[in-house]
Amino acid sequence: MQIVSQIKISALTWYRLMRALRIRGNGVRESGAFLLGRQGTSKITDFICYDALDPHCLDTGIIQFDGSGYVPLWEHCERQSLQVLADTHTHPGSWTGQSELDQTNPMIVTKGHIALIIPTYAQNRMQGLKGVGIYEYLGAHKWRMWDPKDHAVTITLL
Fold this sequence. Notes:
α4 (100-104) links the parallel β5 (82-90) and β6. The chain has one domain (9-146): Cytidine Deaminase, domain 2 (3-Layer(aba) Sandwich), CATH 3.40.140. It is an alpha/beta fold. It has helices at 11-25, 50-53, 70-80, 100-104; strands at residues 7-10, 32-38, 43-44, 46-49, 82-90, 114-118, 133-139, 142-146, 153-156. The two termini are 27 Å apart. The chain has 4 helices and 9 strands. The chain has a 6-stranded mixed sheet with strand order 4-2-5-6-7-8. A 3-stranded parallel sheet has the order 3-1-9. The longest helix has 15 residues, at 11-25.
């Protein structure tokens, strides 16, 4: 199976992301973020949490991101010369499959976009890629699931 999209993230950025998701979800609700990198690269260098763009998107316990939140996202990316490389959100428990809502409402509707689902509301302080759901958007609400061993996403010590 050929990998269409590959993204890389440093261990430091990954653990900063996990901490931000853990704090925002507080062990009781989903949280999420857009993963950003310099234009023309595949390396994630930053992230912006959903609730920084839409302050009420976590209010119900599941993510309900209002489309108006994309305006500050695109403005931020343009100012910083960044692009969205992937998105991530948390789920309760160890299940990291895509819900019907996840499948039919991709955060970025572009073929090859990567979405990560983090287990246990990111409460595992040593969370690596093991147990993370990694999905590639194929278009028309279809997704391909990747095993972390396929290296569609890699965490590196940079």
